[in-house]
Each structure stands twice: as C-alpha cells, then as structure tokens.
Amino acid sequence: MSSIKVGSEMHELGKRLFPINRSLTGAGVRETLSILKEELPALEVLSVPSGTQVFDWVVPNEWTIHDAYVLNSQGERVIDFQANNLHVVGYSVPIKETFSREELFKKLYTLPEQPDAIPYITSYYSENWGFCTSENHKNTLPDDTYEVVIDSELKPGCLNYAELIIPGESDKEVFISTYICHPSMANNELSGPLVTTYIAKWLMQQDSLKYTYRIVFIPETIGSVVYLSKHHEHLKNNVVAGFNVTCIGDDKTYSYLPSRTGNTLSDKAATHTLRHLYPDYKSYSWLDRGSDERQYCAPGIDLPIATIMRSKYGEYPEYHTSLDDLTFVTPSGLEGGYIALRNAIYIVEKDFIPKMTVLCEPQLGKRGLYPNTSSKDTKSKVAAMMDMISYCDGSMSLLEIANKIDQPFSKLYPICEQFIEAGLIEIFKEK
Amino acid sequence: MSSIKVGSEMHELGKRLFPINRSLTGAGVRETLSILKEELPALEVLSVPSGTQVFDWVVPNEWTIHDAYVLNSQGERVIDFQANNLHVVGYSVPIKETFSREELFKKLYTLPEQPDAIPYITSYYSENWGFCTSENHKNTLPDDTYEVVIDSELKPGCLNYAELIIPGESDKEVFISTYICHPSMANNELSGPLVTTYIAKWLMQQDSLKYTYRIVFIPETIGSVVYLSKHHEHLKNNVVAGFNVTCIGDDKTYSYLPSRTGNTLSDKAATHTLRHLYPDYKSYSWLDRGSDERQYCAPGIDLPIATIMRSKYGEYPEYHTSLDDLTFVTPSGLEGGYIALRNAIYIVEKDFIPKMTVLCEPQLGKRGLYPNTSSKDTKSKVAAMMDMISYCDGSMSLLEIANKIDQPFSKLYPICEQFIEAGLIEIFKEK
Amino acid sequence: MSSIKVGSEMHELGKRLFPINRSLTGAGVRETLSILKEELPALEVLSVPSGTQVFDWVVPNEWTIHDAYVLNSQGERVIDFQANNLHVVGYSVPIKETFSREELFKKLYTLPEQPDAIPYITSYYSENWGFCTSENHKNTLPDDTYEVVIDSELKPGCLNYAELIIPGESDKEVFISTYICHPSMANNELSGPLVTTYIAKWLMQQDSLKYTYRIVFIPETIGSVVYLSKHHEHLKNNVVAGFNVTCIGDDKTYSYLPSRTGNTLSDKAATHTLRHLYPDYKSYSWLDRGSDERQYCAPGIDLPIATIMRSKYGEYPEYHTSLDDLTFVTPSGLEGGYIALRNAIYIVEKDFIPKMTVLCEPQLGKRGLYPNTSSKDTKSKVAAMMDMISYCDGSMSLLEIANKIDQPFSKLYPICEQFIEAGLIEIFKEK
C-alpha cells in the first residue's frame, strides 16, 4: 500500500484537468472523463438525454460556451472567459449587447470582502447571464460603454457521467462517488476525482478484494439523482459502505461528515481512521451536509455514505472562488486525503468478526507469537494483542474491538492475521 | 389559537373562586365546581359516599364548617375564620372551650421565619383541631383567657369531583387532571383549575380533534385514588398522554416534573415545549414528585402523566401560606402557563410520523415551496424545511425530527402541512 | 452479620500462613490448604498430575525446594532462603557452583529504586535460577568468590487446589475464587485467602441461602485454567455472579475491576457497594486486568466475575516485594475489604424483583409502617420508602431501584421485608 509519490502524481494530473471548463453538462465534462479514462481504461462513460425525468427532477439542457468577453469602447477585452472560465456565470444564455458601466455592473458579481478573488456563480435552473470578476479589477473599469458578448448555446443534448466496476469475491458493494461539474477550482472539486482515481488504481492493484467496488464520476446533485434513478434498488440491496469524495486536497485539517443515521460501517471506518490519523479532526453534523449525501442518504434511498474531507466546502475562504487553485491544493494535501480515505476503505474491506478457537488465554510463547525482544514497544504490542483476543468472542467485529481497546485497526489486523494462521482465531461470520 | 386577554380572563375568574373555603369535601368544593360549570356547561359533577373503599383508602367523612373564631376576654374576635379561611386547621373537629394564652398557643400554628404569613395546615386523617395565624399577629395577643369556637361537623356525606369529556376522532384519550381542594391560595391551587378551564375551552373551539380529551377536577390524592378506582382499566388502555395541572400561574420560572418513566409522549411534549419557550426552565426528577402523579404513575397504574408548572409546589416561599394570593399569581403568569400547556397538548394532538413520497430531494421551486424573498429569516426557514424532509423516512415522528434538528414543533408542523398538501409527505402511521 | 474482631482474627491467621513458601505447586500449597481446612473443615483438597493438558496449557512439574543460599569465601551465608523465601527466584532449578562477584551479580535481582525491598521473581515456564535481595544488601557484598547452592527439584508431581461447596436452595451458584501460590507477601496474596475464608464462615452461619456457593483456592492462572477445564460447562450454566478475591487487606483505598462485559450482577453489586461505602473508590477498566478474571471472563468462558480490592496489584509500591507484609496489611484493612465483599455478596444473595400488590400509594399509617417519631432521619427514611415503592412495578430489581433512588441496598432491603410481611409487596420473579 505504498503511497510514495502518489501525492505528486495526483497533483500533476490535476494540472492537466484544472483549466477545463466543466459544468453540469457539455464538452468540459466529456473532456475530463476522457482524460480520466486514460488513467482508468475500464471506466465506462455514459449519457442521459436532456429532458429525461429523474425522480422529481428533469435532466437540463446541455450548455455549450464558445467564447465570452466584455469589450470597452476601445475594443479591448476587459473581462475575458479565455483568461479564466470563472468569469462567466455558469449556464449563461447567449447575449451580445452594449451597456453603460452602471448597467454592466448590475450583471457583474464580485466579492468585496475578498477583493482579489473571482467568485464562482451558476444559474442552472433559471435562465440568466452574468460575469464574475475580482472587486479590485471591477474598480479599475472606468465610466464607458461596454459591449457584452456571450457566445453560448443552451439546448437539448445530454448529461454525461462515468462508472467503474472493480469486481470482488462478493456481490456486496462499496460505493464511491465524486463529481466533475466545476470549472477551474482545485479543492472543490478537482481533489475529489483525483483522489478517487488513485483509490481506484490502488484497488485494482490488490490480489483479491472481498467486496465489489462501484466508483462513479458524476455532475453533483443532478448526477446523483440520475444515477439513483437508474440503480437505487440495486444499490439499496447491495451497498455495505460508501464514501462521497470531495474537498480532500488541501493541507489545513481533516473533516468528517456523517451519513444521515451516523452509525453505518462507513461512519465507523471514517471516524476510526480520523481519530487515529488526526485526533483534532473536525466533526460535522448531518445538518451541515451539502453534497451528494443529500441524495444518497435521502429517505427511501438510505445508502450508508459518509464523507472524509480535508477543509469542508463552505468552510474555507477560498471555497467557490478563483483562490481555490493548485497552490491551495498540494501534493501533500492530496496524499493525506488519499491515505485517510484509503485507510477507511481498508477497514471496510478487512473488518470481520474474530472468534477465539481455544478456551482461556492461549499460550503464545510456544507458538512464537510473543515478540522475541522486550522493549516498551513490544510491551505495548503484547498488551494490544492480549486485549484484542480478550474480546474475540464472536460478538464484536475487529473494528469494534479496535475502538474498545483504543488501538488503530491497521495495527490490529496484521496481528489478527497471525492468530488466524496459528489457528487461534477463526472468522466467526462474514459481516 | 390566539390567547389575547386569556390571562386576564383567567385572573378574573380566579377572583371569584379565591374566597371559597375548599377542602377535600364539602360545600366549598361544590360551590367551586358549580362556578366552573358556568364556564364549561358540559362539565359533569359527580359524588362518592364517605366510607367507600378505594384501593387501599377509604373516602373520608364530609367536613362542614359554619364559623370559627377566638374571642378574648372582652368578647372581641382576635382570630376570625370569616376574615381568612386559612385561620382554621382543615378538617378541625368542633370545639367550644376557654383557654389560657399558654394553652391556646399550643394549638396556634405560625411561621416564625415568615412573620407576615398565615400557614395552611390540615389534619385529614387524624381527628384534631387548631388555628393558624401570622407570627406577628400572634405576638400581639396579650396574656388573657380566650374562648375558642369551631362550629364544624365531620360526618358521613360525600366526596365531589367533576369530569368533562371532549370527544375526538379516536377513542384514544388525552387525560388532564387538576385539583380543587385548597382554600384561598392562588398558585397552589387556583391556577390549576383556571388554566385547565381555559384549555378545555380552547379544545372545544377546535374544528376537530384527533384524540378524545378527558378532563377532571378532583380533590388531590384521595380524589385521584377515587377516580382511578373507577376508571383505571379504561385509562390504562386508552390514555396516550396526559398532564397534571398545578402551580401554573406565577411569573417566576417554568418547571417540569416527569412521569415515572420520564420518556412518555407527555414528557417529550413538555420538555420540547419548555426548551423552546424558556430554555432555563427547571427540570425536576420523579423523586421530587408530590401531587397526583404519585397515583397516576403508581406501579400498575402507569399512566403517561407529566407536569408543566411555573414555580413548583414546595419550592417557593409563598407556598401553602396566605402569601400565595392573586398578587403572586398574575394574568401574565397564568397566560404563560396556559400557553406552555396548550403547546404541549398541541404537540400531542398533532404529532405524527411523516414520510416522503418522492425519492431524493424534491424540487421545491416548481411547487412554490421556496420562500419568494430571500433573507436571513427565509434562509433559516429553508434550512429547517430541508433538514426536516431529510428525516421524513417513516422512522421518526415529527416531534422526534424537531428535536433532532433543534427546531420548535410549532414551526415545523405548518411547513409539514404544506408538504402534505403538495403531495410530498404522507402520514406514515398514526401514532 | 456482626464483624467485630473479624479483622483481627483474619490478621492472626495471616501470621500463621505468611512464612510458608507457596509456589504454583509443591509442599507450600499443601501446607497452606491444610491450615485453611482447619478453619473450613468441609474444604476438599484436590490434585491434578503434572503434564495434564488443560486447554492450551500443560500442568507444570512440581517444584520442591529444600534449601538455598549464597556462601562467601569465609563460608558465611550472605543470602539465605531460610531468612526470607523471596530470596530465591521461584521455580529455580538446582545449582551448586562457585562464581565471582561479577558473575553472581548477573543472577541477582534487586530494585534500585526501592533499595530496602527484596523483589519477588519467578520463572515458571522457562528453566532458570536466580537470587533476589535488596539493593542495599547487594551493595554490601565485597569482591569475593561466592558458592551458590540451590537444593531444589523440578519433576513430575501434581498441582493442588481446594474447593468448598456451600449448598443453597437453588442450583444456581455464586462463584468465589482466590489464589494460594505466592510466598511471603500479604496483600497480594494472603489477604485473598484470608478474606475468602471468613466470607465462607459467614455464609455457613446463615440460616438459609438462596444460592449455592462455590469457593475455590487455586494457584493463579494455571489453577483457574485447570479448574475451568474441569468445570466450565457447569459454571457457564449455573453461575449467576462471582468474585475474584485478591489485594483486599491494606488500608489505602478501595478498587473495582470489572468483568469483561462490565454489566453483570457482580459488577452492579460491586459498584453499588463501593459507591456507598467509599465514593472515591478507584474504578479500573477491563484493560487493567491481571488476575484470574483473564481466564474466568475469557471468550467462550464468559463468567460474571468482578473484583473488589483495596490497593490493586501493580498499583502500590510494595507490590511483589518483601515490603508487602503484615504491617502493610492490617486488621482494619482486612476488615474493610471483608465488609465490602460481604456486602456485594449480600446484594447478590438478596436481590429480587419487588412488585406492589395494591394499586395507587398504600396507606402506611394504618399498618404502622410510618415511623412513630418525626425527625430529619425518619423523614429521609419515609422518602426512601415512598421512592422505593414508587418503582416496585415488577420491571426492576431492588438493586436497580436502589441505584435509581440513590439509596444503599442494605438500607432498602429491610424496609422491603417489612412491606412483604405487610402483604404490600410480592416477589415478582426470582432473578
């Protein structure tokens, strides 16, 4: 499970994906998925036509944007979509018209409290148009007449997403979802597809997997509604755990957002991981939700989806601005997020109910299960070992035992494997 | 559910009832019930003969008092029952005898630490007599001979109580009990019958009621034992929630006393109400009990009866003295108690298990369920709405959801009604 | 249940047992058991041959030691097993050989941080030999040649233990275990067999017992494994509660070590007892275990065994040294431990589920159940009585009620007996 250079590799891939103008639909999503397919050839790209009814929603029209800019009276591009795709409000309808400065400013969004940042704005479900720029830049625009040009199309097309199935021994599934619908921003969202891609690579490198892994790259909200409308029965019957992957690439903190019930295997794996990796991690409540868990955990859907993040969406100043870029998201930040998520998935994959095969404490010396050397470290290992086996009565999973004795699962599992080999522990029942 | 002037109306009615010399039995109880019947014509007044065995108890003789006083050697009434009915120990047997000051003082009860207050004393179950006065007044009585006259009768008669049934759609009942056995004191007890009377009026004004409401006015302890001896099987099978109404008219605080188990619907409705109405409310334990919940929640009776109070009996200095009068109990104090109790009953009446009819989050915009204007207030309303529907999975009642998302039930219920109208929520199961 | 002089009697018996050189096996154990049999004639002494397979273990060879000493070049005994049996490492194999001071020191164990104390060392499961002495004494040994003599035998024999069955009305059993395998140390271990002996005497003095009591004196660890290998099915089916008795004779504190699950009747009786006896008692976790509960509570054995101690093994400086002697263990220390354990056993023996036979509160006055005099003390007794009966609904045991109303079981049980006599409470169901 070595992760050497994984952080840098993810960051490099991020540089390729960053400039693409993703949105809910359109060429940017397709280009993104095609690059991800280079990394994961088994990835299958799918589409759903605009207008399809999906539960209470309808798949929107496809948005295409060729160019967009604001010209001053000298014909200079004072705002230019080519320079930064955040400059145009997402899903802007076409326009070509001349405005006074005052009129232009009514359609120009800035963040006065972050004067260097271009905000990210969309208008998916009501027809509109607009430009975004930094407060500082806006203040340089003189009294003038401005020609506004948005060369876009909003018409029936399709919504794209992609799916990767990694088969395991069981039909039971682990579900991993991430989204690919934001233009040039790095923590929310590029870190999600980057870490998910490398988690998929790691899973495919394993000799064998207990569970089948279902990994999807979708546009947020409408994409998860689309996916659920096709697969919710299957998912409800088969998914044992899962994670929504987002905001997992900066260096500031670690965060956890629970599933709706908060007590699924995913929640237990996530909180166990973070408690041992970064005890000061920030724990949010279901009431702080805001991403695809809103659909995955909705009443009647009820999937066990938890979220491990670094800085949570909405909680860091760079969120949804041009400052959320590949300096905010770093190789080490991505690697930390990757390791945390991978460890939670490792727990899901490996957890089982251990049961001692002998009565009373076993004699470990004759089996070479005692460390040969004696040090503070080996004493603590022996204590963990004896504490662990004292709970192997077939009523608790190894993860539950790890929490009970306050030891990391990743330390206990290899010890448990030695005991299985020695015939002292058996698998009581697949979880 | 407007309560304008309800406080003043209750206080006015209190002025009429205050001077009556109530006791466990006798003319005072009958006069009180007859005035309440003017307010609630459907009220049925009932009686049980003295000597009737009721579980482990026997209905006592009826007490009638015509006059009582202490004359000094000049023939002046130095203590006079006509001036304040607390001056005579309740259930005093007749006497007409002359005593020295020293002898008189042995039968004269005062409160040295509250020298202005006349204490309230009774001797229901052992034959006795006595007078009560203020410490200050006692100290004015000179060395003299005193003629003591109590013109009372204690002989077989009956015990009176009253019952009001307000029918609802269901045979399941909400039980409301209050007591009418104390002479001139206002928080304990007049506030109880006053608020109960106006709760009954409010219930009778409703277009329809889910539950049947059973409201009783009884003498404390022996009255609840009498009532239970007649109806306990019926009550045990039908009562879903209930409240004992007492000490609910002063302005000082709000208090909660749980049912024996502490986790009934009544308890949940009471604590939810008080947490949102007055977060600093005082929460007592079952071990602090002292009124009819002692019978209603007794082993084998097991009714779900909780108590919402303002200042709890035994916990305020005016309790069981002449200072517990209609200056201590105020229109605003009564109105606050009325609103708290009414809100708890409203929760009991309205609570149900909501279940979403669509999968994934619904699109609220197209149904006009989003507020048209956007402000801090509407944002909070939308958040509450989305949090609420995220839990409408048929496993929790609306009250449980309200607690989960920390919103008042009274704010969520109207939103829930809109969702029912829009076909987005259905009633999963009557509670 | 008078315990006058019990502390002194236990301490006197301790003086007789203290000098004996107990070990896992051998003459010292037999001599100890034979003295205990003088106190408890019904005690049955049993044996198991060396080499017997017991679960994952094998009964070790029997160790006999005749003499052991270190001679200096003048032929003087500078270390002498006759002076203190801690001077020889337990289970030392025979040796007769001459060493330099440097060589001797490699086999000489001391405690540099407790320079007056001789440490207690054993080597049960790997063949070895050695001497123990105080750091101060070691420092007096000059450069010299030393003749080391250990006149011991380690060869097939047997392991001894003893069992006492005190029959009760029920086949269900209370199991009490203590160990007799340590040489001259008083808290760990003599206090265990001393208190257990006097608990057995107290049980045999009772007119009748609800439960059958099974009391064993065994060598630690291997003895409990031996005993379980013979009886675990019977114990698992019959034992309702039990205690491991150890470290129960000093004056410093009281301690509690839970069973593995922590919620057995034994745990409840122990914690209730200590909370009322010594609220500052030290509560350990299962992770702090270290005595025979490791076997009794092992997965698949699962006996309800908790431990009440004074200063816990491993937690006091005198532990496993010559300083753990009969000045550290005192008559009052033993008596305190005896009373705590006896009270916990009393709770186990007496607890039952009480149920009121009348509905509503009973009238206690007519039955003389109210105290005749009124004082702060009687008020508190009446409150405890009324609180108690308010919970006698057949759903909770008296111990659970005692915890609920925060009253000592030993205060409630006699009141409960009065109510049973008066016909107001019945035994709902044997626990």
Automatic annotation (TrEMBL), chains A, B, C:
Residues 356-426 form the UCP01524 winged helix-turn-helix domain. Residues 11-351 form the DUF4910 domain. InterPro entries: DUF2172 (IPR032610), DUF4910 (IPR032589), UCP015244 (IPR012353), UCP01524_HTH (IPR032622), WH-like_DNA-bd_sf (IPR036388). Residues 62-153 form the DUF2172 domain. It comes from the Bacteria. This is Polysaccharide biosynthesis protein with aminopeptidase-like domain protein. It comes from Vibrio aquimaris. The lineage of its organism: Bacteria, Pseudomonadati, Pseudomonadota, Gammaproteobacteria, Vibrionales.
